[in-house]
Amino acid sequence: AYRGKTVVISGGSTGIGAAFAARFAREGARLALVARSQPKLELVAERLRREHGVEVHSHAEDLSLPGAGERVLKAVRALGWQCDVLVNNAGFATYGAFETQPLATLREELALNVGGLVELTHAFLPDLITRRGGVIHVASTAAFQPVPFMAVYGATKAFVLSFSEALWAENRAR
Q1: CB 129 within 8 A of CB 103
Q2: Catalytic positions, please?
Q3: Is 30 helix (H, G, I), strand (E, B) or coil?
Q4: Does pTM surpass 0.85?
Q5: What is the largest CA-CA distance in the chain?
Q6: Is the separation of the CB atoms in 170 and 164 below 8 Å?
């Protein structure tokens, strides 16, 4: 069902994002993988091209920075591609007593886990609506309860869950 479709995956260089990439590649999708590390992205992209014979573009972008969603959209459009599925997977977690965590790191966690996800969704949603595509937001069971010693991470994942449910309600007829 995904042959000839374009899937954009944030955090596509490792872990869950790389697993999503492998699955969509097996289904014949062409992929735009996004993460901060171009070398790691290129390793995944090369493996997927070799194993599945699909088109894979790797785009290094720090999604915690303002404007990242638009930059990724422009990179995908420069390929002549339109997004059919967006997988918002990029994120990271901090651990420890809240007051002991560096504030700069907590702000980056918020910027990536919330801001990057919102920006990518905002950038790609018009195409997804037009193409009757879909969005997959990767959250966590941490979204369902407070998480001591991971307070910011849990709160970001609660945001992802709430945001996802609201978008579903807004767009279920589209």
Answers
A1: no
A2: 153
A3: strand
A4: yes
A5: 49
A6: no
